[in-house]
Amino acid sequence: MWAASEYARRNHYEPVVLDIPGQPQSETSPQATEALKRFLDAGQSVTAFYGFSGGGYNLWWILVSLAKNHPETPHRIDLVVVLGAPKRLKSEYEPSKYNELVKKNGYPANWEPGKWDVVYRTNPPESALPKFFRGCAARRALMISPWS
Questions:
Q1: Is there a contact between 50 and 81 (Cβ–Cβ < 8 Å)?
Q2: Between β-strands 48-52 and 143-147, what pairing exists: parallel, antiparallel or unpaired?
Q3: pTM, whole model, 2 decimals?
Q4: Residues 91-118: pLDDT tens digits?
Q5: pLDDT in tens, 23-61
Q6: Distances in whole angstroms, Cα of residue 74 to Cα of each of 10, 24, 80, 107, 129
Q7: Residues contacting 40, CB < 8 A, separation 6+
Q8: Cα dist. 142→31, 37, 71, 104 in Å?
């Protein structure tokens, strides 16, 4: 989680780490539910998400939920970072996907399209990991962070 927090700070965000298991991965998982709650409760202050491994998959569900249930909010997002969730393509995190979902469900009054940047990386080769992570489950630690 240190790396995610440091990445947030270097990009001028204040990190907020959710130390919640990422299983099961769904729109109503404990991790997705808490991230949605914090995003919605924070007003305008949370503007980015970082999802690693299971958190990356839950981030997809979070974006779907926002587009379906709170379509007035995705325009607040500036940045979406997804690491180690290779079963979903980068295009599945692009704002155009969620803008289309909102369009399909009907635009709310005063709707603004989402325009966030996406940073997407699949799993690094094991040789690129620090030695203490190689061959251990620790490298699959779940981190999802709505950043403010």
A1: yes
A2: antiparallel
A3: 0.82
A4: 999 999 999 999 998 888 888 999 999 9
A5: 888 899 999 999 999 999 877 788 899 988 888 999 999
A6: 23, 24, 11, 12, 33
A7: 70, 73
A8: 10, 18, 27, 32
3-state SS, one letter per residue, for the chain: CHHHHHHHHHCCCCCCCECCCCCCCCCCCHHHHHHHHHHHHCCCCCCEEEEECHHHHHHHHHHHHHHHHCCCCHHHCCEEEEECCCCCCHHHHCHHHHHHHHHHHCCCCCCCCCCCEEEEECCCCHHHCCHHHCCCHHHHCCEEEEEC
- Lookup: tokens for 24: 């099961």
Cα 98 to Cα 64: distance, rounded to the nearest angstrom: 7
> What tokens appear for 37 in the block?
């709650």
Single-letter residue type at 44: Q
Q: Which residues contact 90 (CB under 8 A, 6 or more apart)?
A: 82, 118, 120
Question: Which residues are paired to 107 by β-bridges?
Answer: none
Distance CA 132, CA 71 (A): 42
